[in-house]
Amino acid sequence: xxxxxxxxxxxxxxxxxxxxxxxxxxxxxxxxxxxxxxxxxxxxxxxxxxxxxxxxxxxxxxxxxxxxxxxxxxxxxxxxxxxxxxxxxxxxxxxxxxxxxxxxxxxxxxxxxxxxxxxxxxxxxxxxxxxxxxxxxxxxxxxxxxxxxxxxxxxxxxxxxxxxxxxxxxxxxxxxxxxxxxxxxxxxxxxxxxxxxxxxxxxxxxxxxxxxxxxxxxxxxxxxxxxxxxxxxxxxxxxxxxxxxxxxxxxxxxxxxxxxxxxxxxxxxxxxxxxxxxxxxxxxxxxxxxxxxxxxxxxxxx
Length: 302
Ligand code: GUN
Prior knowledge:
The chain has helices at about 1-5, 15-35, 50-70, 85-95, 115-120, 130-140, 150-160, 180-185, 205-210, 265, 280-295; strands at about 10, 40-50, 70-75, 100-105, 170, 195-200, 215-220, 235-240, 245, 255-260, 270-275. It is α/β, with parallel strands linked by helices. It folds into two domains: about 40-120, 3-Layer(aba) Sandwich (Rossmann fold), CATH 3.40.50; about 145-280, NAD(P)-binding Rossmann-like Domain (Rossmann fold, 3-Layer(aba) Sandwich), CATH 3.40.50. It starts with a helix and ends in a 6-residue tail after the last helix. The protein binds guanine (GUN).
């Protein structure tokens, strides 16, 4: 904690605090829905296998549902589950009128085709926003479920009243879940948007040349402490999406969480920066709640 307190010149974008405030707002909306005779929003999650990080993410999502008054259902399937069995479970959730939205936690075992799974989820229940219909609608600026991590980042920037219009945003990483949608969303003509966007990836030559020109940098590479202080200009806004478990015998858990940004060297140059943990992670979780609430209210699909 101390490392943040000794850096008064930059502003920490506190995702943990912001997510708690937004959860309180969602809880009030749930109460209002119920009092008006509407249904209680219901999120389901399918978890295949016992990967530690996935267990922890899904556990967090279930806890969040409890916090805001949503119903939640966790469906656990063994690592050995066949693709056909998983698809059958997805079809059952598609048909279950009480379930507003559901997710299949990724990654999946190698014998299962994740793209086939993604496309089996009914678009109107795809609260992860991974289905091509939702990705396409998002890209066209139509109402759609937006992938939770980029959506959470937009909510965080909005919460801090950060105006991005006309800024140069550099996104590092072109994943389908974060980097690609983030680059599209930042360029949109929307309240948090209107950026000039550069998308860098593994074939980009001289990444520092781009990041040194950036007003906003979103780092989503999954490479611990990739972005160093000498790659960032004074006054930048830095959003760290990375969260890698690095072995640490001094911790009870046996690991610590490390972002894609070398915080100590980057933070002193920034106007705003997200910490890890407590930055993008909690915002991703609250974004999933927003998508589920939108589904319960049938905001995007009749
Ligand atoms: N694995 C890592 N992030 C995510 C996510 O946002 N959704 C799902 N379903 N799996 C993930």
